[in-house]
Amino acid sequence: AALDAQGIEPLSLLVMPLMSPELIFGSAAVDASVMGTGARPHLLLLAAVLFVALAVAPVATAAALREAAK
């Protein structure tokens, strides 16, 4: 019920900004690697995003499951 026809568009608007940093840092890492300048800073930022997502995911999952059970 949470993803009915009215819920799809707002959900996509919420998810898209969350994907942007990964795309930016990922493409910057590839660009830096191709240019030979080193991709380490970009990969460290990607790792930081990963660790934040790992910390937030259980809380968000629990909230979604509580909401779905209502």
Protein described:
This protein has 70 residues and is mostly helical. The protein has two helices and no strands. The protein is elongated.
Poorly predicted sequence stretches spanning 5 or more consecutive residues: none
Distance between the termini: 11 Å
Number of helices: 2
How confident is the prediction overall: mean pLDDT?
85
Strand-pairing-aware structural class? mainly alpha
Our estimate of the beta-strand percent is under 5%
The helix content, as a percent range, equals over 70%
**Can you write the helix and strand succession as a string?**
HH
Cα radius of gyration in angstroms: 17 Å
Summed up:
This protein is an all-alpha fold and 70 residues long. The chain is 87% helix and 0% strand. It has two helices and no strands.
Question: Any key phrases for this structure?
Answer:
70 residues; mainly alpha; 2 helices
Task: Please describe the topology of this protein.
Blueprint (H helix, E strand, L loop, with lengths): L4 H31 L4 H30 L1
